[in-house]
C-alpha cells in the first residue's frame, strides 16, 4: 500500500457527501458517511497511517505504532501495541484469521488473531510493505513477503522453520505489494513487476511513466480486479494489465505467462488509490493546489471519481469532491483507498478522517428524487422496488406527492393521484376530501372518489353533490349519472333539486337530473312524466327497461309528438302490452300519426290490422299517395268499391285503373289509360298483363288513327298479336313516325321467334332420341329369374322343382312373370302380349321381353 507520512494539524472542516455542484440535476452514484464511533476517538489522539479491509472487520494502523481491529461500524474490538513509530502496512489473509504488520522501525510481525503464534522479526531498515499469501491459514501456504530495500519471500518448511528467499532487489524502495492467488505484484522506484510463485518466474516489468515525480510523495497504487487483471495507478497514469498464458510453441526460455496492457490513459489529477466497480473503476484523486480552473475553496479537496476505462482513454461517470478533516494539510501520499470485495464499500483513509463510500441503493435514489422534488419518479421507483426499500413507504411518498401538487396548484393532478395513493384507506380518503373542501376544490376530487366495493360515508358524497348543485348544474348532472344511487341518500338530493327547481322551474338540466334520481328511486311514473315533458331521448329506454307500457297508454300522442318513428316501432314491438285497438283509439284524432302506425303495422303483417284497411284508404290518399297503390295491390281486405270511390273523387288515375281491372272492368281501365294518361306503353303493358284478345282489339281500334300510338304498338305487340292485323288496318297514306324502324323490329322479332322454335325443336328431338336410347338399353337388359320369383297368375314358384322337365316362362318389362300356360290369349294385336296386372291398373302396356323355354 502507499506510504503515509504522519501529519499534524487539527480537523476543522466537516465532511460532506454531496458533489460541490449542489444544483446539479445528475444523481450521484455513491453515498458517503464518516466512519465514527471508536475511530473518532482514535484519530483525535493519533493519526491513521494505513488500513486493511476484510468482509468481517477492519484493521487500522496509526502513526503511533498501534493496530486497532474495528467492526464495520468503526467500534474498536481489539488493540495491539506493535511499535512506537508509524505502522506502514497491515495485511490479512482471506479467512481473516492471520495478520501481517510492518512498521517504520523495521519490525515485522505475522501472527494469528486467535493463536498469537507466528513470525516476529526486527530489520535494520524500515519495512514499507508486507503481504500474506491469500490462503495463509492453510498449512501448505504459510508464505508472506516483505518489502523494504529488497523483496523477501518467507516460507515455513517441513521443520516448521521460516525459509527466506530474495525475489528482487537493487531498484530502490518497494512501496506497494498486492498478492492474488499465485501472482505477486509490487512497485519500486523503476516500475511494477509481477512474480508467479507457482512457476517461480518473474513475468513482466511495467515501467513508470512520469519519472519526475518522487515515488515517496506520489506512491504507486496497485489493485487486482480479478485473478488475472491488475490495475496500476501512478501519478496521473492508469494502466490495466491482463496476465495471459503464453502459447507453448512460443515459450522457449520465456515465462509461461505474459502481460498485455489492454487500456492506458492519463487523468487530470494525481492518483491516490484505485478499486474495481463491476466493469468500471473507482479512483481517489489528490487535487494539487496549483491546478488551474479550480475554485479556491475546493482546490485541495480529494476527489472520488467513477470512470469507465476505454482502450485508449476513459469516460467520467461521476465525480465528487470530498471535504475530509484537515484536507488542506494532506499530501497525495496521505490518502489511500481500500475496498471490500464482498460488498461495494470503498474506504477513503486520511490521517484524521476515514470516509466510507458505498453504491446508492433504491432508498438513496428515492431520497435524491424527493430532494429534487421529483415526486412522480420517486413514487414510481418506490412502487417498482417496494420489496427492497427499507427507509421509505410508498404511501408516505404518495402523500408527499399529493401535498406537492396541492401546493403548486395542480388540484386535478393531486386528486388523480389520490385514487392511486390512498387505495382503500377510508380515513385518508375522508381527510383528503375535507382538505379539498377547505381549499375550495371539491370539484377536482369528485370524479376520482371511490365508488365500487370501497365506499365512503354517504355524507361525503352528499357534500360534494350539494357543492355542485350550488355552482355547476352540468357537473351535478354528470355526477348523478356516473355515481351509483346507493352512494348517497337519494331522497335528500331529490329534495335539494326540487328546491332549486322552485327558483328555476324550466331548467332542463335539473329536470333531467331529477328524472334520473326518480329512476334510481324506482318512481318511474314521475321520471317518465319529466322525460316526456322534456322530449328526452332516454324516454324509450326507460319504458323498455322498466316495462312502463301500462303508464304510457294515455301518453301515446306525446310519444308520437317526440319521435313518431321510434314510438311506432316500440308500440308494434310490444303489441301484447298495448293492443292495436288501444293505439288506434288513442290516435283517432291524430290522422297522420294513425296513418304512420297503421302503415308500419301493414308492412309487418298484411292481416293484423285488416279491420282498419278501409280507414287506411283515406289515410293513404291524404298523407301518403305513393304507398296507396302498393297497399291496394297487397291488401285482400280492402273494400274495392270504397277504394274506387275515393280514387275517383281525388282523380287518382293509376289507382282507379288498378281497381277497375281488379273489379273486372278492364275495358274501362284501358280506356282511362288511353284517354286520360295517353300513355301507349302503359296501355300495352296493361294489355300484356291481362292477355285478353278483346283488349288488344280495343287497343288497336283506339290507336288506329293516332300515328304515335301505332308506332308504340308496332314496337311492342309482335310477341302477343300478329302484327299483320294491325298493319292491314292502317290507312294508306297515313304518316307514321319511325315506321321503318318499327317494321325492322317486327321482322327481327319474327326471326327471333323462328330461331327459338327451331332451337326448341332441336332440343326436343335430341331429348326424344336420348330417351329412346335409354328405353332401348333398359328393355334389352337381362332380368334375373330364380327360385324366389313366383308366377303372378298361379302364385306358384316360377321355376319348377324338377328343372329336368320342359317349362316355359314369360317375363315382362314391368318385371311381372308368368308361366306360359298361365297367360291369357293374345289381344287384338297379333303377336303382341301385355301384362295383365299392369293393363288392369292402366299403367300402360308391357310387352314380353323374355320367353324362357326348356
Automatic annotation (TrEMBL):
| GO CC annotation, single | late endosome membrane
Region (Disordered) residue ranges read: 1-30
Question: Where does this chain mainly localize?
Answer: cytoplasm
Compositionally biased spans, kind Acidic residues: 14-26
Q: Which residues form the Vps41 C-terminal RING finger domain?
A: 789-840
A GO biological-process term: macroautophagy
Q: Please provide, alphabetically and separated by semicolons, the GO molecular function terms listed in this UniProt record.
A: zinc ion binding
Q: Keywords, A to Z?
A: Autophagy, Cytoplasm, Cytoplasmic vesicle, Endosome, Golgi apparatus, Lysosome, Membrane, Metal-binding, Protein transport, Transport, Zinc, Zinc-finger
> What region holds the Vps41 beta-propeller domain?
30-359
Subcellular location, record wording: Cytoplasm, Cytosol; Early endosome membrane; Endosome membrane; Late endosome membrane
Q: Which ranges does the UniProt record give for the CHCR repeats?
A: 568-712
Query: Highest taxon of the source?
Result: Eukaryota
Which stretches are annotated as coiled coil?
none
The record gives the membrane topology as: Peripheral membrane protein
Q: Where are the transmembrane segments?
A: none
What is the protein's known function? Plays a role in vesicle-mediated protein trafficking to lysosomal compartments including the endocytic membrane transport pathways.
What family does the entry list? Belongs to the VPS41 family.
Name of the featured protein: Vacuolar protein sorting-associated protein 41 homolog
